[in-house]
């Protein structure tokens, strides 16, 4: 039986929605301290991120209100990372998981393991896949492009790599490590890497614009 494996961020749900959810949690935390309504703070952070990226958002909001300190920036970061996000699957991801509900489905995702686990929980994915592999649980060196957890999936399902398809968005790391082993790869063209041009080693076997194209 073929096995279908999905990346998480920007493949099954828009990662920016996690970022915005985190900003709203930080806004709730900062609101009493800065004496500014949380909605105002959240809107400011969301606008700032859109222009400058997320690197300095907490520094900027604290500076803007004359309350910058290293400790407060750290507290914002903690609040962001520990918040329980509100997230929704992309509509085509929702349909895809339903369409392939009888297949062995998996998730493979990099990133902070507790953060990724909270995303999986928020999206109610635990009941829809056999397992969500958070590569971080196996050590940082097991992050993509390392093929380790993909090999664990083969062992668990008793299949060869040729029977496993991985769907991801990040051409920089999602496919280059597993392609030489025979895994099938599909690139979903969305998120930050949608327009990124990759060489043959990094490119997937095929590209799609929507998970509805997976049949
Ligand atoms: Mg991704």
UniProtKB/TrEMBL annotation:
The organism's place on the tree of life at top rank: Bacteria
Q: Which cofactor(s) does the record list?
A: Mg(2+)
Per the record's keyword annotation, is Magnesium included, yes or no? yes
Q: Which Pfam families match?
A: Hydrolase
Keywords assigned:
Hydrolase, Magnesium, Metal-binding
In its keyword annotation, does this UniProt entry include Lipid biosynthesis? no
Alphabetized GO MF terms: hydrolase activity
What the entry lists under PANTHER family is as follows: GLYCERALDEHYDE 3-PHOSPHATE PHOSPHATASE, N-ACYLNEURAMINATE-9-PHOSPHATASE
Instruction: State the protein's name.
Output: HAD family hydrolase
Biological source species: Hymenobacter negativus
């Amino acid at each position: 039986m073929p096995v279908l494996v999905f990346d998480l961020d920007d493949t099954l749900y828009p990662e920016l929605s996690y970022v915005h959810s985190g900003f709203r949690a930080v806004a709730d935390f900062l609101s009493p301290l800065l004496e500014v309504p949380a909605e105002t703070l959240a809107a400011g952070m969301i606008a700032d991120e859109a222009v400058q990226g997320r690197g300095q958002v907490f520094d900027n909001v604290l500076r803007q209100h004359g309350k910058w300190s290293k400790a407060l920036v750290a507290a914002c970061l903690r609040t962001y990372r520990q918040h329980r996000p509100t997230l929704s699957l992309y509509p085509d991801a929702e349909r895809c998981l339903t369409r392939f509900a009888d297949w062995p489905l998996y998730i493979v995702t990099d990133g902070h393991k507790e953060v990724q686990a909270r995303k999986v929980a928020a999206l109610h994915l635990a009941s829809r896949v056999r397992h969500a592999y958070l590569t971080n649980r196996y050590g940082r060196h097991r992050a993509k492009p390392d093929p380790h957890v993909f090999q664990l999936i083969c062992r668990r399902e008793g299949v060869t790599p040729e029977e496993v398809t991985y769907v991801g968005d990040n051409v920089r790391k999602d496919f280059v490590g597993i392609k030489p082993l025979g895994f099938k790869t599909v690139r979903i063209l969305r998120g930050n890497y949608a327009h990124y041009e990759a060489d043959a080693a990094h490119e997937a076997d095929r590209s799609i614009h929507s998970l509805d194209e997976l049949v």
